[in-house]
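Dear H.,

Thanks for agreeing to be a second pair of eyes. The structure we're designing against is below in token form, covering all 357 positions.
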């Protein structure tokens, strides 16, 4: 490792742990931080123990390069804007409806005046990030309303879990799906796991793919079917499945039913239709392996998006790299962010990893 790279590495260490770096290039660290550092800097950290704690360490370079972690920015569209964020909240516009929802990542100050925030039609009130709350609703609020997303119609409604039927930060991904599938030289067979209300499914179907949509929630699948009808895509070849994602994929493997592309958006925690429990860190490796096993020989891509997990985009990159190494192709892992309409600020929303060939 050159002196410049080494200097950057130690500047990174200093900024994270807020401790001074000695001239001998040793610093007090915890074992957990050392493990994180190995992964993040892609270097080997040697440490010296004292009473079962990391007392000092030094850095050697490893041969493989660090991947570039891109930022994918969603700036909204005609029917959606992230207007402002701050003080743990965000102000959004969905069509003609203005909503306030909690946003733990927004620990800066609001940029718009309080009077602009008071124009919201509804505000979600929650005691904590992991608990359901309730909506404080203005008079004459609709039970549901529709918005357009590049010709796809999506019904929105308030729920006790703060979600409303759409994750707008995924908009660049839907556009990429549509364009990539439309440019394919053969009709693509696409699997959408944890498909929710079907935006990725409908973008893929509109572009010409044959899609299998899987979600453990019967309500979500019914909602997605309704969006299909609202969008005039009833004749598109979409198979709707209410099932546990991991169970379904393993069953498809036994049937030798292969797919040319897979999209998955697993939650941090969830339950299947028969009480199956999903925990990201426990089951994600098995799911990724199972997905690779049902990719066809001419498979084009596998796209995964993750929310509210402690893993970094680099973690997803390494997991995908190990699983797909025999298939070749390229891997990109990055972060999904939204840009506010009235400022240059970006709000981090999710991480993702894409394998394509």
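And this is the sequence the design step returned. I haven't edited it by hand at all.
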């Amino acid at each position: 490792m050159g002196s410049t790279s080494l200097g950057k590495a130690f500047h990174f260490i200093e900024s994270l742990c807020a401790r001074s770096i000695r001239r001998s290039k040793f610093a007090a660290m915890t074992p957990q931080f050392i493990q994180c550092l190995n992964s993040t800097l892609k270097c080997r950290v040697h440490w010296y123990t004292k009473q079962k704690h990391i007392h000092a360490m030094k850095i050697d370079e490893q041969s493989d390069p660090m991947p570039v972690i891109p930022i994918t920015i969603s700036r909204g569209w005609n029917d959606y804007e992230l207007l402002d964020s701050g003080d743990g909240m965000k102000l959004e516009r969905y069509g003609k409806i203005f909503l306030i929802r909690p946003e733990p990542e927004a620990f800066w100050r609001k940029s718009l005046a309080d009077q602009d925030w008071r124009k919201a039609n509804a505000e979600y009130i929650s005691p904590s990030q992991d608990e359901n709350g309730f909506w404080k609703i203005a008079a004459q609020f609709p039970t549901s309303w529709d918005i357009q997303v590049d010709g796809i119609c999506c019904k929105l409604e308030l729920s006790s879990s703060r979600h409303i039927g759409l994750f707008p930060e995924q908009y660049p991904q839907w556009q990429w799906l549509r364009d990539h599938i439309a440019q394919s030289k053969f009709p693509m067979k696409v699997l959408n796991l944890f498909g929710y209300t079907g935006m990725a499914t409908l973008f893929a179907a509109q572009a010409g793919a044959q899609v299998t949509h899987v979600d453990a929630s019967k309500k979500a699948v019914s909602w997605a079917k309704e969006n299909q009808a609202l969008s005039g895509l009833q004749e598109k070849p979409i198979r709707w499945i209410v099932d546990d994602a991991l169970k379904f994929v393993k069953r498809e493997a036994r049937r030798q039913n292969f797919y040319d592309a897979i999209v998955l958006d697993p939650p941090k925690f969830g339950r299947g239709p028969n009480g199956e429990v999903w925990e990201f860190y426990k089951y994600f490796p098995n799911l990724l392996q199972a997905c690779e096993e049902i990719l066809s020989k001419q498979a084009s891509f596998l796209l995964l998006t993750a929310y509210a997990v402690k893993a970094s985009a680099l973690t997803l990159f390494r997991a995908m790299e190990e699983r797909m190494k025999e298939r070749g192709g390229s891997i990109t892992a990055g972060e999904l962010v939204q840009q506010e309409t009235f400022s240059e600020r970006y709000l981090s929303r999710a991480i993702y990893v894409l394998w394509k060939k």
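Two observations from my side: The first strand starts at residue 43 and ends at 50. Residues 42 and 66 are 6 Å apart (CA to CA).

Warmly,
E.
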